Amino acid sequence: MATTVSTKSVDLSTIFPDAVIADERKGYTGWLVEKDNLIEIATYVREELDYDLLSSVTGVDYLPEEKMEVVYQVYKTTGGPGLFFKVQIPREDPMEIPSVINIWPGADLQEREIWDLYGIKFPGHPDLRRILTWEGFEGHPMRKDWQEPFYEEETKPFKSRWPKGEHIHAEEINPYHDNLKFPPKFNPENWTPTDPEEALYTSLKKFTTKNEDGLEAEQIIVNMGPQHPSTHGVFRAVVVLDGEKVVSLKPVMGYLHRNHEKIGERNTYLHNMPYTDRLDYFNSMANNWAYALAVEKLMGIEVTERSEYIRVIMSELTRIQNHLVWVGIFLNDLGAVVTPLLYAFEERELILDIFEEVSGARMMCNYYRFGGVVRDMPVRAFEKLKQLVYDRLPGKIEEFERLLSENEILLSRVKGIGYLSAKDAIATSMTGPMLRASGVPYDIRRAEPYGIYDRFDFDVVTRPECDLYARYHVRIEEMHQSLRILEQAVSTIPEGPILPKKPVYQVRVPAGEAYGRIESPKGELGFYVISNGKPNPWRYHVRAPSFINITALEKMCVGEKIADFVAILGAIDIVLGELDR
Amino acid sequence: MDWTLWLELVIKALVLIFALLGGFAYLTWYERRLLARFQSRLGPNRAGPFGLLQPIADAVKLIFKEELTPAKAYKLVFFLAPIMTLVPSVIIAAVIPWGPPFQLGDRIVTQSIADINVGVLFLMSIASIAVYGIVLAGWSSNNKYAMLGGLRSAAQMISYELTLGLAFVVAILLGNSMNLTDIVEAQRDGRWFVLVQPVGALILWIATLAEVNRHPFDMPEAEQELTAGYHTEYSGMKFALFFMAEYQKMIVVSAILATLFFGGYLGPWVDRWPLLGPVYMFLKIVILLFIMIWVRATWPRIRYDRLMAFGWKVLLPLALAVVMITAVGILLAEINPWMIWLIPIFSLIAGAFASLMIDRSLRRKAYA
Amino acid sequence: MLLEYLAIAVLIVLATVVALIAIGLGGLFGPKKKTVNKSMPYESGMMPIGPGTRRMPVRYYLIGVLFILFDIEVVFFLPWAIVFRQLGWFGLIEMVVFVAILLVGYVYAWKKGALEWE
Q: Are B220 and B156 in contact (CB under 8 A)?
C-alpha cells in the first residue's frame, strides 16, 4: 500500500494525469487539483498515501488573476515532509468547493473559517456557519477587495500618518467616539439583542432523552461564556444539558477577532514580528520562531549558529513556563482555588526574567529576526539561565508532581474523562500534547526537525490513556524533556555572530510560498506566507493550534458532566488571542 | 416574668448575634490572610494595621452597591431568600453552650441562649431548614445557573444530612443525652469523644463541610461551572447576607464539632473561672476553621456525581457501622470499662475498609 | 423549660431584624438606576434561551424520596440512643433488626441504580 510510495517523490500528476498538474508558479510547490476530482484525490491521499493529518486548510485570494485558491497541507503522523495540494476556482460568486470533512474531520472549523473570511462555500459541510465574525456580517473580510470602515490604503506604512514628515496617530485623525456611528434614536444602554441566534441553536441537535421508565427529561440550553470565569477568556460554548450531563455542545468564538491575518497582509514582513507575539501571548518566543521560519524559507537564508542555540533555549523555556502555568490553571479549573497556579507563576516569573533580560519585554518579546535573533544574550542572563536549568527548575517540577500527581481527588477528576482515541485525535487534526496524550508519538521537533533539534537527545512523550490524566502527565513529562534539551543546549552553545548580515528594516523577499511550522507548547503552530516580491506578504495565514484543537471539543464532552466540560476545555490549553486571531 | 429576665434574654441574643457578625467579618479576614500565606502572597494589609479594617471597608462597599433584581424574578421570594438563609445560621447557635453557668449577683446565668433537653434534635432541624433559603434563591432568580446551583445544593445538603444525623447519634450514645451541656460534661477529665470515636468525629466533620458547602464540597457555587451558583443574581447587601450566612455557618459547625467531640468549653481551670469557657471554645473553633481553610487552599473540588456517590455509598453505611460499633462498645464497657477502647479500634478498621473500597472503585473506574 | 424556647423566639426576631436592617441599609444607600440590560438574567452575557425556572430532572426527586426514607430511620435512632443504656442488649438487637430491614431497601436502591448519578 502506502509503504511502496516514497514520501519524497509522491507524483500526484502521474497517478491522476487528467486532474492534477504540478504547481509551477515561481517559488511554489505542490499540486493543482481539479475541483471536481478533489474528493477522489483527497480520499486517495488519505487512504492510499496515508497522509492522515490535515495540518491546515486555507484560502488565498488572487485578485489580479481573478482566481480564488484553497490550499490543503497534509502530513503523515509517522513523520516526513508534507504534501500540498490546491484547488483553484474562478473568482465569481457563488464559489463552491466540495468539503473534505468526511475525509479529514479536522477540516470542520477551518472550512467554516474560509467560508467566513473568503466566502467560499463547501457543499457537504454539515454546519457551515460564520465562525469568527457574526451572522449578518457584510462581506468576507479577507478578500482583497473588501475594505474596512476608515480604510486608508492597501499596505503600510500609510501615507496619511506622515503628512509633514512627522508621525500622527490614527486616533488623532478619527478621535474616539467618532469612529462609532449609531442609527438615530439608538441607545446601546437600552438595546436588547433580538436575534436569538437561530442558526446556532438549530445546529445543536434537538432531541429528548427518555429514561427506562419512559419519563421525559427536559433539556436546558446553557451558555458557557463569553463572560464566564472558566472559559479562559471570551470563548463561548453553548451546551445542552440533561441534568448534569452534556448532551450536545457547540463552540462559538470570534469575540476577540481582530482579523489578524488582514493586518498581517497590510504590514511589511518585519512589521509582523511583534504582531505574532499577540497571538498566543503566553508563548511569544515560539510564535516568533514559526513566523521567522516561514519567511526564512522564502528568503532562503541561513540562521547563524549561535542564534539557532538561543532559539532552542528560548523556545524550550517557553514550553516549560507554558506547561507550568497550564498545570496551575488546570487545577484551578478543577476547583483548587488558585494555590497551584500561584506556585506555577512563581517559577514562571523567573523564566520571564530571562526573557526580559534578552529581549526587553517579559511577554511580548519580539525577539527573533530573519536569520537570527535581535540581540545577543547578556552574560548575566546566561548565568541566571544556568542556575535555573541546573538547580531550580528540576526540583520545582518534581515538587509539582509530588504535590499533585497522587492526589486522590485529582485522580478521580481526571482518570477516564474526556476520552479521545488516537484515531479520532488524528482525524480531528489534534496536535501537540493533546495528540501525544492519545498515544500518537507525533512531535514536529522529531517528525520534521526545524532549527537544530536534530542535534539534541530527547524523548517524544506519549501516554496511552487518551484522557485528562494522560494530558496532565504528558505535560509534566514534557517539562522534564525540555530541561534535558536545555541542559544540552546550555552546555554546547557556541560563540559567534547573531545575525548573518547587518539588520535592515525592509527585507527583500522573493516571490513564492512557504509554510513554516514548529512544535509550539500548544501544538503545531504554522505560518503560511505567500510573497509576490513586494514589501508586504500577499497572504499571511496562521495555523493556530488553539483554534484547531477545539475541533474535537464536542466529541470529548458529550456524555460527560458539566464539571468535566470545564476540565476538558482547560486541558486543550487554549489562548483566545490565538483562537480568535 | 420579670424585666431582668427579658433583659437577660435580649442581651444574650444580641451578644450572640453580634459575636457571630464580628466572627463573620474577621473570619473573612482570617481566611484571606491565611489563603494568601498558603499561596505565598500577603493578603489584605492596607486598611488598618495588618489589614484588620478590611472587613469594614468591604461592608461599606457592599452597602453602597446597587441591588439588582432580574426582570422576571419572583420578587417576594427573591427578597426573602437571603433572610431565610441568614436567620437559621444564627439561631442554630442558640443551643450551643459557650461555657459553664456562672453567678451574677443573685442569679445564675447560663452561657447559652437556650439549654434545652433536645439540643441535638434542634441542631438537626435547623440544619434542615437552612436548605430552603438556598433553594428558593436559586429558584426565584429566573436564571439557569442559579437554578442548577440551588438544585445541586438541595440534593447535596439532604444527602449529607443523613450522615450528619447519624454522627449526632454517635455523640448522643456516648454522652447519653441530647442536651449539649450534658454531652460536654460527659467529656470531662480529657475524655473527649474524639478519642473514643475518631471516625465519628471525622464523619461529622466531612458531613458539616458538605452541609455548609465548603471546599471541597462547594458544589452549589462551583465558580468554574455555574459562575456563582444560587446567588448569581444577588448583589449588594442581599449578596452580603448569603456570604454572611455561609461564614456564620462555618463558625457554628466548628462550634458544634468542638462541642460534640472536642470537649466543648472544657479546659484547665474552667470551673474556677467560668468565663474561660468561651475562650476555650474560641481557640477550638479557630483551629477547626484553620483546617477548613487549609483544605480549601489545597484540594481540587470533587465532582458532583462523585460527591453524591460518596455521601450515599460510603459515608452513610460507614456512619451506620460506626453507630453500631459505638453501641456495642458501650454495652461491653459496662462489663469491663477497658472495653470502651474497642470502639476506636473497630471504627478505625471500618474507616480503613471504607477508604480501601474508594481506592478500589477509583482504580476500577480509571480506564473504563 | 418553655422559657428556653422563648429565648430562641427572641433570637429569631432579633436575627430577622438585623437581616432586615442590613437589606434596608443597602436599599437606602445603593444607587438605583435600572436599565433593560441590567435586569436581564445573567447567562455569561448572552440572551438566555427559554425560562430560567423549569421542570427539574427526575434524579433530584429520587434523591428527595430516598432522603425521606432514610431520614425517618435517623429520627428513629435518636430516641433509641437516649434510652439505649436502659434497654441494654435487648435494645441493641432490636435496632440491628430494624437496620437490617432498612439495609434491604438500601441494597435494593443501590442495585436498582438509584444512587448512580448518570
A: yes
